[in-house]
Structures are given as structure tokens and as C-alpha cells.
Amino acid sequence: MTANAKRFAGGFKPVWHNQLLADFPLIFLTEPQAAVVLGVKPSTLERWRYASKGPSYVKIGGGVRYRPNDLSAWADANTVIPLQKRIS
């Protein structure tokens, strides 16, 4: 963790510049973009949200956004290992 990240975590007001932004990359995907990444329809993501399933999401200004890391973590958590691979 860089000094800027430590100051931010410690409650000090950070000076926003390129290095600090590199420490805290904020990349958000829209619902259609996340659907493409997962290979599903946007309506499937919407249905999963209402059923409290699917990947974590963020509400920003009333819109739904997904972090790429959350999509990867969700996919990893839902990976099924075939029985034959588990045995060997």
C-alpha cells in the first residue's frame, strides 16, 4: 500500500492525483456490459438481483453498476468441478 493509500485509509483528506487514482481504480460496468462478460442477457442479471442471487453490484445515482472483480469472484464461487476431476 502506498503512502497515499495509507493516508486515505487513516482518514486524512487525500490529494487527488494520478498515483492515488492508481491505488484505487474505480472501474464500473453497466448492466449490458456485465451481461456480455458473463454471457447472459441483461434481463437475467436483473432477475438475479431481485432474487438476491448473482454477482454483487453497486447503486450509483439510481443506476446499477458492476465491478469486474465482483463478476470474477462470483464466477469463481459458482465454478462446478466435475466429479472425475475431483477424484484424481
Quick structural gist:
By secondary structure, the protein is mainly α.
Protein described:
The chain starts with a helix and ends with a helix. The model has no long low-confidence stretch (mean pLDDT 80). It is mainly alpha-helical. The chain is globular, with a radius of gyration of 18 Å. It is built from six helices and two strands. The chain has helices spanning 3-9, 18-23, 31-38, 42-50, 68-77, 83-87, and strands spanning 58-60, 63-65. A two-stranded antiparallel ribbon has the order 1-2.
Task: Offer a few descriptive terms.
mainly alpha, two-stranded antiparallel ribbon
Write the SSE topology:
Layout: H1 3-9, H2 18-23, H3 31-38, H4 42-50, E1 58-60, E2 63-65, H5 68-77, H6 83-87
Antiparallel strand pairs: 1-2
* E-strand count: 2
Number of helices: 6
Assembly form of the protein: single chain
Model regions low in confidence, pLDDT < 50 over at least 5 residues: none
